[in-house]
Design brief:
The complex is a heterotrimer. Chain A is mostly helical. Chain A contains 3 helices and no strands. The longest helix of chain A has 27 residues. Chain B has 17 helices and no strands. Chain B is globular and about 65 Å long. The two termini of chain B are about 20 Å apart. Helix content of chain C is about 85%, strand content about 0%. In chain C, helix 1 runs antiparallel to helix 5 and helix 3 packs antiparallel against helix 6. Classes of the chains: A mainly alpha, B mainly alpha, C mainly alpha. Chains in contact: A-B, A-C, B-C. Chains A and C meet through helix 1, helix 2 and helix 3 of A and helix 1, helix 3 and helix 6 of C.
Chain lengths: ~80, ~550, ~210
């Protein structure tokens, strides 16, 4: 199982590289970041064994990312609306 | 009966046994002694400022010195007194006791926290001795990163290191409360102090690393000479404020939530009543911790932050008042028809409620965009946050110290003196800080050492009040120290209080409980006083 | 003694949960850098793309594969520790350490190339890159630098564990230490998964 995950991760890596190289215009960065998020989820589920972990560990595992998202979102309310009139 | 059973204090008297201890109770005492030193220095800086402000002219200290004084005062009070005050002293002492555990989850990390705190404190004091820092405790860029000629790096390094101490403390409490509860102690049977410490720990763990990286970026920018907060390169100084307040606003709740927890313990005990709306008080702590992360932009209404972000942050800030108000209503409802007695802890607790309400309501003024534009950067803000931090947190800290003093030391403090100094503190505090609301509303800016003559009368009242307030701090230090030797011996439960910490001896033995206690009832199952007496007699 | 077993189990759970809480703080520690990156990328979109083209994508890609592989060997080490196979633990830990060092060596070559190309922000900054590219490279150095520090810490921890593992027979306590080190190492890998696209790839297709 771990071997399969490793192969998928490396494969995804080359997909990311390919996407970045050929590009989708403005969607490129969101696409490659989404793929990196998939890699993260795979690592957390299988390598870090969140899949087999209890509820509390799952909450702790997600908390950091969730808080970072809150921070980004609220900072974005400032930077995205600075030039509105 | 042996008058001196073995307890955590008399097992070993060597200095080594204190400096290498992993006993959470001893670490709490280490924190208590060290934060009192920082507190004394910070109070001294405040005293000099109040003296300077007696007259409108800047005649006691130079404006540069004044800048350094308020920086020292802010840095030491925030990071080296308030943040560790209740969490690291009472929290360390009480969390394992209250949940029936032998110690915290990671006792060695706990000791490491104290050492990190002390090393951080050393660097900070060293910066003060070298000549101080004049940026204010907020270290706003580009002043701190480029223009200030003072010892910014050293002080920031001190705070950076101490920050890791508080991260480890928070982490320790989170895991301790999560994993070490004694059999039968379910989440909704926990004392409310534990709930508030859990909420505080969430903030310590999730906010402090952001401060660390922010100070690191600022420091590198100062050393390197270029950086991302410098407009010369196209950097945005407001981003520093965003990152700084993402930590520092939640940190305000680190400085009040533990106080709320203490009050939630004291009020039911001295009203002989179960707390009203237990679940609401418990959940409001967590709600405050979470919503507290979403409101930082209200410190930046008059920076160049977008007005739309300002509106968002203003609305979110109003939301925090809901859980805070829930707590106040529940405390008051607990008092209703209780058999209230006014021992010193209760006097502090009722004082807390009043001062917190004033501090909280004036917070709503400041969260209102248009009003904030008028009072931003004035003494109104100073008065507001002192009502929360000093009127709230320090009063709660004093109340908590008195309440648990018999448990910590095994001695009773002199009750009359306790009551007297609680009243002195309340009077002194209001005299010091209420005039500052008026000053601020009339437009006196903060952080200046001279001011227009028409403000003098309020400043004189404030300085006079500060003297009384100072007495309110000095008295407890004297009589509490006196009671260490001369106080009456306390039995295990001098307040006839509920809670596991009162079920073990005073002071507790080294490992708290002979065997894990089993909890079978909810918290605060207070019978009215008469019944308790009967039960005690029987 | 059942009570004793219960305490040991409780301590194990506490340690694992503690590690996860620590990783949450790490997410927010690095988070400040990612937030800064996002803000300036929004401000200076084109300059960031132009600056990113000056990073060495070959080194970056090789390093990514190395780190992903080291995560894999680390996961194998954790599994071996659970099966109490001292020999396998040693082998996989050694492999992981080797890959970590390999990563640092490549990073060293890359840093050397960056310095030769004048990619350090300041008065001697590479003149081909627009002004705000300096912000990109300021973040580049700090992000990869802090990540490198984390790699070094991870290598130190694993070396200690390798030493302990060689000396004593694989015990339950030991296996947990390896599990915790594994969690940390995977986290360091995850950070790189975002550094790689943001630093090396944003300007490639234009």
């Amino acid at each position: 199982m771990l071997l399969v995950i490793w192969l998928v991760l490396v494969a995804l890596h080359f997909v990311i590289l390919g996407c970045a190289w050929f590009g989708f215009g403005p969607a490129t960065t969101p696409v490659i970041i989404s793929l990196a998020i998939i890699q993260t989820i795979l690592i957390m589920l299988y390598f870090m064994e969140v899949r087999y972990a209890g509820k509390v560990i799952r909450v702790f595992a997600v908390a950091g990312f969730f808080w970072l998202l809150l921070q980004l979102t609220l900072i974005a309310t400032d930077y995205l609306s600075r030039n509105w009139h | 009966m042996n008058p001196n059973p073995v307890n955590y204090l008399n097992t070993d008297y060597t200095i080594k046994s204190w400096l290498l201890t992993t006993d959470h109770k001893r670490i709490g005492i280490l924190y208590l002694c060290s934060i009192l030193i920082f507190f004394a220095i910070a109070v001294y800086a405040a005293a000099l400022m109040r003296l300077e402000l007696l007259t409108p002219a800047g005649d006691l200290v130079l404006s540069d010195t004044y800048n350094k004084l308020f920086t020292i005062h802010g840095v030491l009070m925030v990071w080296f007194f308030l943040i560790p005050s209740i969490p690291s002293v009472l929290g360390n002492f009480l969390v394992p006791l209250m949940i029936g555990a032998r110690d915290v989850a990671f006792p060695k990390l706990n000791l490491l926290s104290w050492y990190l705190f002390m090393v951080g404190g050393f660097f900070t004091l060293h910066a003060v001795i070298l000549g101080g820092v004049d940026t204010g405790w907020t270290f706003y860029t580009p002043y701190s990163s480029t223009y200030s000629n003072t010892h910014v790096i050293e002080m920031a390094l001190g705070i950076f290191i101490a920050g890791f101490g508080s991260i480890l403390t928070g982490l320790n409490f989170l895991i301790t409360i999560q994993k070490m509860r004694t059999p039968g102690l379910t989440w909704f049977r926990l004392p409310l102090f534990i709930w508030s410490m859990y909420a505080t720990s969430i903030i310590l763990v999730l906010a402090t690393p952001v401060l660390a990286i922010t100070l690191l970026l600022m420091g590198i920018e100062r050393i390197w000479g270029i950086g991302i907060f410098n407009p010369k390169l196209g950097g945005d100084p407001v981003l520093f404020q965003h990152l700084f307040w993402f930590y520092s606003h939640p940190a305000v709740y680190i400085m009040i939530l533990p106080g709320m927890g203490v009050i939630s313990e004291i009020i039911p005990c001295f009203s002989r009543k179960k707390i009203f709306g237990y679940k609401f008080v418990a959940c409001s702590s967590v709600a405050i911790a979470v919503i507290g992360f979403l409101v930082w932009g209200h410190h930046m209404f008059v920076s160049s932050q977008s007005i739309y972000a300002g509106i968002t942050f203003s609305l979110l800030s109003f939301l925090v008042s809901i859980p805070s108000a829930i707590k106040v209503f529940n405390w008051t409802a607990t008092l209703y028809r209780g058999s209230i007695s006014f021992e010193a802890p209760m006097l502090y607790a009722t004082g807390f409620i009043g001062l917190f309400v004033i501090g909280g309501l004036t917070g709503l003024f400041l969260a209102t965009l248009a009003v904030d534009v008028h009072v931003h950067g004035t003494y109104f803000v100073v008065a507001h946050f002192h009502y929360i931090m000093v009127g709230g947190m320090v009063t709660a800290f004093m109340g908590g110290i008195h309440y648990w003093w018999p448990k910590i030391t095994g001695r009773l403090y002199p009750e009359k003196w306790g009551q007297f100094s609680a009243i002195i503190l309340f009077v002194g505090f209001n005299l010091t800080f209420f005039p500052q609301f008026i000053l601020g509303y009339l437009g006196m800016p903060r952080r200046v050492h001279d001011y227009a003559p028409e403000f003098q009368i309020y400043n004189v009242i404030s300085t006079a009040g500060a003297t009384i307030l100072g007495l309110g701090y000095l008295l407890p230090i004297i009589y509490l120290t006196w009671s260490l030797k001369n106080g009456k011996r306390a039995d295990a439960n001098p307040w006839s209080a509920t809670g596991l910490e009162w079920k073990t001896a005073s002071p507790p033995p080294e490992h708290n409980f002979a065997k894990p206690p089993v909890v079978t009832e909810d918290a605060y199952n207070y019978p009215p006083l008469g019944k308790a007496k009967e039960a005690g007699d029987a | 003694m059942p009570e004793q077993n219960q305490i040991v189990a409780q301590q194990r759970e506490a340690a694992t949960l503690g590690m996860w809480a620590f990783l949450a703080t790490e997410v927010l520690f690095f988070g400040g850098l990612f937030v800064s990156y996002t803000v300036y990328r929004h401000f200076y979109f084109a300059d960031f793309a132009a600056a990113s083209r000056h990073t060495d994508v070959t080194f970056g890609t090789i390093n990514s594969i190395i780190l992903l592989t080291s995560s894999f060997t680390m996961a194998l080490a954790v599994r071996a520790a659970k099966m109490a196979s001292q020999r396998l633990v040693s082998r996989h830990l050694l492999l992981t350490i080797f890959l970590g060092i390999f990563f640092l060596v490549i990073k060293g070559f890359e840093y050397h190339k960056d310095i030769v190309d004048h990619l350090i922000p300041g008065p001697h900054f590479n003149a081909e890159i627009p002004l705000h590219g300096q912000i990109f490279f300021y973040l580049y150095w700090i992000m990869t630098g802090l990540h490198g520090v984390h790699i070094i810490i991870g290598l130190a921890i694993m070396s200690i564990l390798l030493g302990l593992n060689a000396r004593r027979t694989a015990s339950l306590k030991n296996s947990q230490a390896i599990e915790l080190a594994g969690l940390y190492w995977h986290f360091v890998d995850i950070v790189w998964l975002y550094l790689y696209p943001l630093l090396y790839l944003v300007g490639r297709h234009a």
